[in-house]
């Protein structure tokens, strides 16, 4: 088969090949398989795909007779992982902010850039003037870059519109991207991302708009899978965050939080009280926040791309999270200002190198735990029977290579939503 990922043409996904059959000669990724029959170490494994679902997972030598006649796909000893999950992105926006990168190199802080008219507000201006089609065309290659590395599910936040019509535009584009490219997209309403210029000095009025008009309208249109807030001294207070969470709770929508990135605001503990799916960034997370997240089952999402781009030096409390048993996800945080990252594998390397995650922790962070951070734990993040067929076959000798290489684009096979989205080149 031709080695390709989904083209931008809307018919490209529909034209991809059905993945049904027996995928044999696989090497299971440790900790990321739940086999129907245990696979002895060193023995080849297989995955049976029927009607887009993984129907059986186990050792090739014990493949049930009922599947023996199915078509065969030889993986040639490839390492098999679940499809990757990028659980925190701001993928849909207008323009770019390379000038701010230069400002930071010259010594400006994140807060100084924001006060100078840069930051989120500059992306808001560019997003508001862009049409829905223009936003789609700008976001499509970003999504394709992530998908080419095996991403099978991605979260896309709004938050660069900060007005109903423009937040709607972002979320509509996110939905369109999922449909056009055959990838699972979870949409997150981030109306409380920054205070729009027209509401300067009137934060409560804007929070009222978010809670009473924007969120109900967008939820009624089926555009909101989760609600997020940027809780920080340059953004929204704990009280304002709580108002947004209460509005989401009334609508039965789960919440997430940009928490403790620049300071310890106590946001993680607040989010945990609302049963938050995740708290993200968390460089300044406190012991109380960790305990609250553990009790609530809230995932800690690590964003090494933003840490790196901002040249941060305050590490997230990895050892304490590990000791408490709080699941740690890893994501690109793709956004135009502080993490213009389009490689989840690079984030794995950064998480290991900068944050000292182990390889198994980092790989669970872009599969199992990332799926939990999106509420997709029953459909993504593991290779197991009864789930949609989302998996990646990597031509590597061991799992550590996925964290080891810098900039390598593995010639992998990607099965996404039960179809062969990308096939490894024939030797």
Automatic annotation (TrEMBL):
SUPFAM superfamilies: Composite domain of metallo-dependent hydrolases, Metallo-dependent hydrolases. GO terms for molecular function: imidazolonepropionase activity. 4-imidazolone-5-propanoate binds at residues 97, 160, 193, 261, 338. Keywords: Cytoplasm, Histidine metabolism, Hydrolase, Iron, Metal-binding, Zinc. It catalyses: 4-imidazolone-5-propanoate + H2O = N-formimidoyl-L-glutamate. Its cofactor is Zn(2+); Fe(3+). Its main location: cytoplasm. Its EC number is 3.5.2.7. Binds 1 zinc or iron ion per subunit. Pathway: Amino-acid degradation; L-histidine degradation into L-glutamate; N-formimidoyl-L-glutamate from L-histidine: step 3/3. Fe(3+) binds at residues 88, 90, 258, 333. Residues 80-413 form the Amidohydrolase-related domain. Pfam families: Amidohydro_1. N-formimidoyl-L-glutamate binds at residues 160, 335, 337. Zn(2+) binds at residues 88, 90, 258, 333. NCBIfam families: hutI. Catalyzes the hydrolytic cleavage of the carbon-nitrogen bond in imidazolone-5-propanoate to yield N-formimidoyl-L-glutamate. It is the third step in the universal histidine degradation pathway. HAMAP family: HutI. PANTHER family: IMIDAZOLONEPROPIONASE (PTHR42752), IMIDAZOLONEPROPIONASE-RELATED (PTHR42752:SF1). This is Imidazolonepropionase. It comes from Acidovorax facilis.
């Amino acid at each position: 088969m031709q080695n390709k990922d989904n083209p931008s043409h809307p018919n490209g996904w529909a034209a991809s090949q059905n993945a049904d059959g027996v995928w044999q000669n696989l090497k299971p990724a440790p900790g990321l398989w739940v086999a129907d029959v245990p696979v002895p170490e060193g023995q080849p494994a297989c995955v049976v795909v029927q009607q887009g679902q993984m129907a059986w997972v186990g050792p090739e030598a014990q493949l049930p007779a009922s599947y023996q006649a199915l078509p065969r796909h030889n993986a040639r000893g490839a390492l098999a992982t679940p499809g990757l999950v990028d659980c925190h992105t701001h993928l849909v926006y207008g323009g770019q902010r390379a000038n701010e990168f230069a400002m930071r190199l010259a010594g400006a802080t994140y807060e100084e850039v924001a006060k100078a008219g840069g930051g989120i507000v500059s992306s808001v201006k560019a997003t508001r003037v862009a049409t829905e089609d223009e936003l789609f065309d700008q976001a499509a290659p970003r999504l394709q870059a992530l998908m080419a590395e095996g991403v099978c599910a991605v979260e896309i936040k709004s938050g660069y519109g900060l007005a109903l019509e423009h937040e709607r535009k972002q979320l509509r584009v996110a939905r369109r991207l999922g449909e056009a490219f055959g990838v699972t997209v979870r949409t997150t309403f981030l109306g409380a991302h920054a205070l729009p210029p027209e509401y300067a000095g009137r934060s409560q009025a804007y929070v009222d708009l978010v809670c009473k008009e924007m969120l109900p309208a967008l939820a009624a249109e089926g555009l909101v899978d989760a609600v997020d807030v940027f809780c920080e001294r340059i953004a929204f207070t704990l009280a304002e965050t709580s108002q947004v969470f209460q509005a989401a709770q009334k609508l039965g929508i789960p919440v997430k939080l940009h928490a403790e990135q620049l300071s310890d605001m106590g946001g993680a503990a607040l989010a945990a009280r609302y049963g938050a799916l995740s708290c993200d960034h968390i460089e300044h997370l406190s012991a109380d926040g960790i305990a609250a997240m553990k009790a609530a089952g809230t995932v800690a999402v690590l964003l090494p791309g933003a840490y790196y781009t901002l040249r941060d030096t305050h590490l997230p409390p990895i050892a304490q999270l590990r000791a408490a048993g709080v699941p740690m996800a890893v994501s690109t945080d793709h956004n135009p200002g502080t993490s213009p990252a389009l490689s989840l594998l690079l984030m794995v390397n950064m998480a290991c190198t900068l944050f000292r995650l182990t390889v198994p922790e980092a790989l669970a962070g872009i599969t199992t735990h990332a799926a939990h951070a999106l509420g997709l734990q029953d459909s993504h993040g593991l290779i197991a029977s009864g789930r949609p067929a989302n998996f990646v076959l990597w031509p590597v000798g061991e799992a550590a290579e996925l964290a080891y290489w810098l900039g390598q684009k593995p010639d992998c096979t990607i099965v996404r939503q039960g179809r062969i989205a990308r096939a490894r080149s024939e030797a």
